[in-house]
Specification:
The chain is of the alpha+beta class and about 800 residues long. The radius of gyration is 29 Å and the shape is globular.
């Protein structure tokens, strides 16, 4: 029987190596390399008047110093704006080294290359830069006020304003039986992966070849950027991504300045050079995300069905715009979730601030969109006195409505069309998993005992598997082992396991015989990258297609060798055999020998000759349209994105005295189509939930009014420990296969983090009885909210809700016919 591992809970093959300390990261390569250190701006906004290098040039151990004046050609030009969009009115990107002006604390001004990192750091500290201070624009209120500008040629600090709509949403809201007006706020957070950014490079002058190792999510993108900026042929640049200690989006930007400066120095100096980012550097000079202000106007009927939805969003994109408008586009399109408002309008304003750039962070705009929509659903339920689950159900897209066109354009430039799903069934699963219907009685019992508990839910839809393409190459060796290469990178997702499961299932070989290589442009020079929950959909599909091609080729070779019809053959456990004819078989290793018609070449194990001309002079050794070798390369390019979905629920307890928030129960129902490996999917969900807990309750980037980051260390930037993350996360799966790819799969990598802010806000609001409209929320902020909403009683019974759905106070502004459209 053919080896079947697709869908099985196969243990990750990469884990033993990592747990034994055998991982190989960028800092482990080129141990004898020179070290680069970076001088970073101490100011958020200033003109560079002079850079004095005199105290550095003669320092023992210093090999080279570079400022912008030392760069030329393409290297002296701004870094690329990776994803242009017609709505961008003022697209600005930084230079590899600052020219004339700095626009955030941490911007690279100069670099030193020295014999070791200690000397390089000492030398950086001796560089004397004269700055002329300029007013700093910090935070969205300051950016919106535009009393000062980040860039003189970006009026109003606006990088872009963009609207998508399906009709006149304002009119639909105004004519609705009930209307609400809601203001929401989400602060900045950051990825903070275990391994920061790192790059190493070696130049071979004899062959004119450059090898670069970098901790990236897109090795081929870095390769193209290096070739372009250093004026090299693409074919002489190799980029290898070794083990990566977490990416989460921050490493999808390409190129980072250091990814250009390290190879530039390596070529100029004729010696290997490396750069390894320290933790403070990562906080102040890598990428952040999340910060948005949102205004929602919604109209709805007596059942809670939305009749019109009008949303305006102000998005903080930091000092530059290297990644275009992807994050706010995702926010405004994924905000719709599993719902179908008949009329929808979303406008975002992407604004410059004198802070670190903003690029996708796990979830990539979706947590903000889900926060807007799910807070809206909760407030509709509270206004009507209905169960929050019932209001959601009243707005669901139904199973027989797929594929469902939302009438918008998604981040990939293609129509926002959901391919499959079953949201009513998913809601039923979630309610059963968390005990939703039984919670009212439980809550009342606990409150009678003096405990404050609340329950919340949040739903989401996640666009996954965005194009344009990914490839897969499969080669069967003469040993029977199967070598697989794909160009996207790996940073903890379990690709070596899940991709091997696909190959083992499709090709009919033992799982243990499959070897996976990712992120090496020498093995797969064309690829896009690992982000947006696309690896399984894109590379998985390409690998499956290549495996099917190899299987066909193997069966055709075996049919010739065994003098049988292809339809009479079966391939299992790496052996092709004739059905019903014991002993009539041939191994894939032998077929690999036969696939390469060399004269007098033998497979020592089977003694099989490959001289095809013997006995059949008319046979063409390599027929037209084929190539030697039992191998195949294929590429998958999707018609559009697939859409995974999920729902989370959480029960929390808030301490009546300290306002600390404790998670009592967490439940997830998720649909990512067919599951390649349920255990890996659940691991992704668990990791995402942990990150979501941090983003909702602990993590924020705290800037002062001068643009100085106040918590640029793990002593001050609070991440959840194992004590803060739920020890048990109840997970249930729903599989609605996607019709858009050969495996019926959807992405899963970001699912766990997407609804976190919304689900915790919902539960805390339920526990406390007042609005929670800004995230993250800390115990001190919750304590302050208590004093604002209950000035006469800082503790005690917060009151009971009319149903699981609502809070005793109206956490919004009411706009309905009874008030003649006014606000109260």
């Amino acid at each position: 029987m053919t080896t079947k591992t697709f869908g099985e809970r196969v243990a990750r093959v990469e884990d033993e190596r990592f747990l034994r300390g055998r991982g190989r990261y960028v800092d482990d390569v080129l141990p004898d390399a020179l070290h680069m250190a970076v001088l970073r701006s101490p100011y958020a906004h200033a003109r560079i008047r002079e850079i004095d290098l005199e105290a550095v040039l003669d320092l023992e151990g210093v090999v080279a110093v570079y400022t912008h004046d030392d760069l030329s050609g393409a290297m002296a030009e701004p870094l690329p704006l990776l994803i242009p969009h017609p709505a961008i009115s003022a697209g600005r990107t930084q230079y590899a080294l600052a020219k004339d002006e700095v626009n955030y604390v941490g911007e690279a001004v100069a670099v030193v290359v020295a014999l070791d990192r200690y000397v390089a750091e000492d030398a950086v500290a001796r560089i004397d830069v004269t700055y002329e201070m300029l007013p700093a624009v910090v935070g969205l209120p300051a950016a919106r006020a535009a009393e000062h500008l980040v860039h003189d040629d970006a009026p109003g600090n606006v990088a872009a304003t963009y609207n998508q709509n399906t009709g006149d949403a304002k009119a639909a809201v105004e004519s609705a039986p009930h209307r609400l007006s809601i203001d929401l706020d989400i602060e900045r957070s950051a990825c903070t992966p275990l391994e920061g950014r790192g790059t190493a490079a070696r130049w071979d002058p004899d062959n004119g070849r450059l090898q670069v190792w970098t901790s990236t999510q897109t090795s081929t993108g870095v390769r193209a950027a290096i070739a372009s900026k250093l004026d090299l042929d693409l074919s002489v640049v190799d980029v290898i991504t070794p083990d990566v200690g977490g990416g989460f989006g921050v490493k999808v930007v390409h190129p980072w300045p250091e990814e250009l400066l390290v190879p530039l120095a390596a070529r100029a100096l004729g010696r290997p050079v490396k750069f390894t980012e320290d933790r403070r550097e990562h906080f102040i000079s890598s990428a952040h995300e999340r910060a948005q202000q949102q205004h929602v106007e919604v109209g709805f009927d007596d059942e809670g069905r939305i009749t019109g939805l009008d949303v305006e969003i102000w998005h903080d994109n930091g000092a530059y715009l290297p990644y275009g408008l992807i994050v706010p586009i995702i926010t405004t399109t994924q905000l719709l979730g599993p719902y179908k408002p008949p009329v929808y309008s979303a406008t975002f304003h992407s604004l410059y601030t004198n802070t670190v750039i903003v690029t996708p962070y796990r979830g990539a705009g979706r947590p903000q969109g889900v926060f807007a929509m799910e807070r809206t659903m909760d407030k509709i339920a509270a206004y009507l006195g209905k169960d929050r689950a019932d209001v959601r159900a009243a707005n669901f897209i139904q199973p027989d409505e797929f594929p469902y066109d939302q009438g918008l354009i998604f981040q990939d430039g293609k129509p926002l069309v959901y391919d499959s799903g079953d949201f009513p069934q998913m809601l039923d699963k979630l309610k059963a998993l968390v005990g939703w219907d039984e919670f009212v009685a439980t809550r009342d019992e606990l409150r009678a005992a003096g405990r404050r508990v609340g329950i919340g839910m949040a739903c989401y839809v996640e666009g996954t598997g965005v194009g344009p393409y990914e490839g897969g190459h499969i080669q069967v060796e003469t040993t029977g082992k199967v070598k697989v290469a794909t160009g996207l990178t790996t940073q903890g997702q379990g690709h070596q396991t899940s991709f091997a499961q696909i190959v083992a299932s499709e090709l009919g070989v033992p799982f243990s015989d499959v070897e996976i290589v990712t992120g090496d442009t020498r093995r797969m020079p064309y690829a896009v990258g690992t982000y947006a929950s696309r690896a399984a959909v894109m590379s998985g599909s390409a690998i499956a297609m290549a495996a099917r091609s190899v299987r066909r080729k193997a069966l055709e070779l075996a049919a010739d060798a065994l003098e049988a019809n292809v339809d009479d053959l079966e391939l299992a456990d790496g052996v092709v055999s004739v059905k019903g004819a014991p002993g009539a078989e041939i191994s894939l290793g032998t077929l690999a020998v036969l696939s390469n018609p060399l004269r007098y070449a033998f497979d020592e194990a089977s003694k099989a000759a490959t001289q095809f001309s013997v006995g059949d002079p008319d046979k063409v050794p390599v027929p037209e349209g084929t190539e030697p070798g039992l191998e195949s390369r294929d590429f998958y390019s999707p018609p559009r994105s697939t859409f995974a979905s999920g729902m989370h629920a959480v029960i929390v307890e808030t301490d009546p005295d300290t306002a600390e928030i404790t998670i009592l129960k967490y439940a997830v129902v998720h649909d990512c189509g067919r599951l390649i490996n349920p255990m890996i999917v659940e691991g992704q969900i668990h990791g995402g939930v942990a990150q979501g807990v941090g983003g909702a309750l602990y993590e924020r980037m705290a800037y002062d009014e001068h643009g100085q980051l106040q918590n640029a260390s793990f002593m001050d930037f609070l991440m959840p420990y194992v004590t803060e993350v739920p020890t048990t996360i109840d997970v249930d799966h729903l599989e609605t296969p996607s019709p858009l790819n050969p495996l019926g799969i959807k992405g899963a990598g970001e699912a766990g983090v997407i609804p976190s802010a919304a689900v915790f806000a919902s539960a805390i609001e339920d526990a406390e009885g007042f609005a929670v409209d800004a995230m993250p929320i800390s115990p001190s902020e919750l304590f302050d909210l208590r004093r604002t909403h209950r000035p006469d009683r800082d503790s005690g019974d917060p009151g009971s809700s009319a149903a699981v759905s609502s809070s005793p106070e109206r956490p919004y502004r009411v706009r309905d016919d009874q008030t003649d459209g006014g606000e109260s």
